[in-house]
Amino acid sequence: MTAERPEEPTPEEVRDRLQRRAVFLCELAEARELRRRVAPRRSRRAAIHAALRMHTFRII
């Protein structure tokens, strides 16, 4: 039984995928920043909870 290898993407396909990923990550960062500005109480609460979670796993 032979495992089929997917064909290698062309450099253009790789470039397009990386460009789409960069745009997506930029838009995601903008959305997170907007959410932080619009709902500061929620983001502050999330930051406090994240800090508490990190404190739980901190090695003393």
What does this structure look like?
The longest helix is centred in the middle third of the chain and has 28 residues, at 11-38. The chain has one domain (11-56). With 60 residues, it is mainly alpha-helical. It is built from two helices and no strands. 75% of the residues lie in helices and 0% in strands.
What is the structure about, briefly put?
This protein is about 75% helix and about 0% strand.
Name a few traits of the molecule.
mainly alpha; 60 residues
The best one-word shape is elongated
* Average pLDDT taken over every residue: 84
**What share of residues are in beta strands?**
under 5%
Low-confidence stretches: none
Could you tell me the number of beta strands? Answer: 0
Largest sheet: none
CA(first)-CA(last) distance: 52 Å
State Rg. Answer: 20 Å
Q: How is this fold's topology laid out?
A:
Blueprint: H1 11-38, H2 40-56
Helix pairs in contact: 1-2
